[in-house]
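Fold this sequence, please.
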Amino acid sequence: MLINFQTDNYANLTSFTFFMLFHSLKSNQSNGFKGLYEVFRFS
């Protein structure tokens, strides 16, 4: 039960992270890789 809960938590965190990265890239389409770099640099 506890392992399943931790796995679900990890999956939610991962999907949230990818959602934020996708949103960042989408709002900076002219230079997506620079936007991705900025996300990691300032987080």
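The two ends are 32 Å apart (CA to CA). The mean pLDDT is 71.
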